[in-house]
Automatic annotation (TrEMBL), chain A:
Key words, A-Z: Cell membrane, Membrane, Transmembrane, Transmembrane helix
Annotated localization: Cell membrane
One cellular component (GO) term of this entry: plasma membrane
TM region(s), chain numbering: 29-51, 71-92, 99-118, 138-164, 185-205
Protein source organism: Sulfuriferula multivorans
Gene Ontology process terms (BP): aerobic electron transport chain
Domain Heme-copper oxidase subunit III family profile: 1-206
Function text: Cytochrome bo(3) ubiquinol terminal oxidase is the component of the aerobic respiratory chain of E.coli that predominates when cells are grown at high aeration. Has proton pump activity across the membrane in addition to electron transfer, pumping 2 protons/electron.
Protein name: Cytochrome bo(3) ubiquinol oxidase subunit 3
Subunit structure: Heterooctamer of two A chains, two B chains, two C chains and two D chains.
GO function term, MF aspect, one: cytochrome-c oxidase activity
Membrane topology listed for this record: Multi-pass membrane protein
From TrEMBL, chain B:
Location relative to the cell: Cell membrane
UniProt-listed Pfam families: COX1
Main location: membrane
Cytochrome oxidase subunit I profile domain sequence ranges: 61-579
Keyword Electron transport: yes
Residues passing through the membrane, by range: 33-58, 79-103, 123-146, 166-189, 209-230, 298-319, 331-352, 364-381, 402-422, 434-456, 477-496, 516-538, 610-628, 634-651
GO BP: any one term: aerobic respiration
Source organism, top-level taxon: Bacteria
Organism whose genome encodes this protein: Sulfuriferula multivorans
GO CC term, one of those recorded: plasma membrane
Lineage of producing organism: Bacteria, Pseudomonadati, Pseudomonadota, Betaproteobacteria, Nitrosomonadales
UniProt protein name: Cytochrome ubiquinol oxidase subunit I
InterPro entries noted in UniProt: Cyt_c_oxase-like_su1_dom, Cyt_c_oxase-like_su1_sf, Cyt_C_Oxase_1, Cyt_c_Oxase_su1_BS
Topological category with respect to the lipid bilayer: Multi-pass membrane protein
Amino acid sequence: MSHEVIKHPGLNLGAAHGPQHDASEALMFGFWIFLMSDAILFGLVFASYVTLVNATAGGPEPHALYDIKSVFIETLLLLASSFTFGMASLALKYQHSTARLIGWLMVTLVLGVTFLDFELHDFVSMFAKDGVPSRSGFLSAFFDLVPLHGLHVAGGCIWLICLVGQIAKYGVDTQAKHGVMRLALFWHFLDIVWIAIYSVVYLAGLA
Amino acid sequence: MSFAEQFQHPLGRLSLESLPFWQMLNDPTRGNVINGVIGTAAALMVVIGTLVTIAMITKYRKWSVLWSQWLTSPDHKKIGIMYVVLALVMLIRALMEALLMRAQQAFGLEGGFLSPDHFAQLFSTHGTIMIFFVAMPFLTGIINYVMPLQIGARDVSFPVLNSISFWLTAAGAALVMISLCIGKFSTGGWFGYPPYTEASFSPGVGPDYWIWALTLASLASTFSGINFAVTIYKKRAPGMKLMVMPLFTWTALCTSIIMIFAMPPLTVAMAQLALDRYLGFHFFTNELGGNMMNFANLFWLFGHPEVYILVLPSFGVYSELISTFSGKSLFGYRSMVIATMAIVALSFAVWMHHFFTMGQSANINAVFGIASMLIGIPTGVKIYDWMWTIFRGRVRFTVPMIYSIGFIYLFVLGGITGILLASPTIDYQVHNTVFLVAHFHNVAIPGALFGLLAGYHFWFPKAFGFRLNERMGKVSAFCWIFGFMLAFFPLYALGLMGLPRRSVAYTEPSYVPLEIAAFLGAILLTVALVTLVVQLWVSIKQRDKNRVFAGDPWDGRSLEWSVSAPPPEYNFAVIPVVTGRDAFTLAKEGGKAYPLPESYTDIEMPKNSVMGPVLGAIGFALAFGLVWHILWMVILFFVAAVVTMIVYGFARDTTRIVPAQQVQQEHRRWLDAVAAATGISRADEYQSANQGLAEMTIHEVPA
Ligand code: HEM
Ligand SMILES: [Cu+2]
């Protein structure tokens, strides 16, 4: 049986894995569809935010709450983590050493966790300025949207740790490869969502 | 007690007052006693039903079989059957509630016997159950069973996810069921509009039950949609091109696409309402900038596409069986496909017709009104296609055909009243009256329920290897059709006379005769359901007379009829090669319906997985903890859910091999049975002589 080299959207599993392409194809395609559904979810939460952004009800407004410097650092962290995940994917694709794969994954993890740490600080300082979700419709929408992305990133971090665990236990087997490939999609997707948050929430809010 | 205090208590807000008979015992007024007795009886039915089921399974020592053959099975056929069983059980409850509501309104002139609060729970649970735990599991079950067989696949793409979807749905249904025994369900209707469902107006557990039941169902349907779409795109047998797929598979695909895009709005609406209720957010509250219109938009952004999720699979069923029982290929296949796709696209562009009266400008109303009316066009195309399929066919008046013909008449009527309602000016007159109730039952019952019941009769012999009793099926079908007409036609008139929907009582004497007619209709519908249950019972008793092991009792046209009944777990001993539409009919005409393969190969199948039942149980417990503010339960089961998924990630070796030897044995045994069977002519299909082999001398009537 002959197999086309890249049948599935996503990364090649390598020539040695012919028949496995079929299985991966459905898996990766399914994950793309899941992300599409998730994108709708984010889109609607964005829409809620946009409709409620002026509903400050006399409470603090974006100017008083957002700290663009911190958010800019977060953006850089997340973009960098997408780059390092890309390096991990290349390590997987060209079957570099497992150590290199795990190394890049760990760097990504550190960047992701640092991102979350910065974000948490943002929230704490917002809380200190009476920027709590129960204060107004605007703050409710903010604390639905931005932490939803944060929770996704946290979930991605846990997933990443699990994948490293799986690789430690089984080596880079097919399932671990599938895991890394799907997490990569997830991670880049969250990056795109973040760009939207950065523009719609922070830049527009401070403009 | 404040929220925080409730969460500190080890039992949250659970107390003796949560029991359905508590109020009646402490304050035995006449009204309290009547409502308490009804509530307690319902709770007892749930408890006794559960206990009897458990006792029977224990008595016949079926636990291990049940566990290993069914509950943990990743087999799409078994999961499909479990979905349908769930739907039928929930249908019993929802129909009983409908009967009770109709009884209340029939005697509603002097106030009736139910309290307003009780009545409100009834329409809320009835609507919620019918949509999310009857129609949805029913159609998901039938898609699950039939679609992989129709496309020549051995299972869906993600069998374990499929099982998880089922168990999450079951958990949601269980949550609604337990609300009968502990606490009260929401009184906010099936779409639970805030601010009424906010903590300030409905502080009790009701809306929380509703929120978490819907959240579980919503997640489950999202996963099902993804699973089905991937299966249809990626697992078709060679030659099964998109434009060759049976129409039921097409509607399954379109339904899945709607699920993927339309369930997220529901999830978001539920999550935001939960944030409001639990953490004091202000999405939909009256104060501090909340805006309930966001909820209305989110909910109906889901809600309207949802009604197409409900009807499209039934459209698919009708297409299959009208073509089968007319002995003709489907008229206008291509137009059917295009019409289905058009409906999918339009279904996302009309949601605002659910709130024409809620304050947007006339221009916006006009746009959405016109968009809504446009849906009549593709639907009309379908109706004509079905009629042209029947035209000049050799029609057999079987049970599914009775449903189909009832459907064609009644659905046209429901569609016409829909187009009336799509005009904002008319809607202003009749919105929120029982005219609307009549309209949506007029589309939901013939459009969704009849199709699913017809599908149940059609594919039952495939799933269980014997036919259902034909006579009782006919009695039941006619009771459904005429019961429906008697129960709902009066509501059109009542609506025009001004009776608001959800009325517990009224003061207008001229409503009474029509109300009584509608009540009689509901009784007839109950007879229909009872007949259905008796039919199943009788058919099981007589099963040996009605076996159709050879697998093709109706002279079927698509691939699911080309395997034994019931099919082997791997569906196809050898994956078929498809040459065109109506693949099995083509094979029969070419004399190649039952080929003897030269060799067999090992088949790789998924192993059983406990993930489904475990995640379902965790989902249920987590939701229960959230409803009752039991903090430790919430934390415990949240952690359990995460840990379970992590552990599952470490699972390897999740498939097993069915050896070629065994495949050969089973396949040969079936082929021998086929060779031994005598073909049955179409006219004699409902007789015992039908062994599931169609007579081969068939001449197609030109279309
Ligand atoms: C089979 C016989 C059925 C009967 C006798 C029946 C009867 C009723 C009645 C009496 C109501 C309350 C009407 C009112 O507000 O005044 C109602 C509401 C409703 N029914 Fe049915 N029904 C049936 C089947 C169905 C089916 C199959 C579905 C959906 C697939 C359905 C969905 C609903 C919904 C969504 C509501 C609205 C609940 C609300 O007001 O929030 N029903 N039904
Ligand atoms: Cu609608």
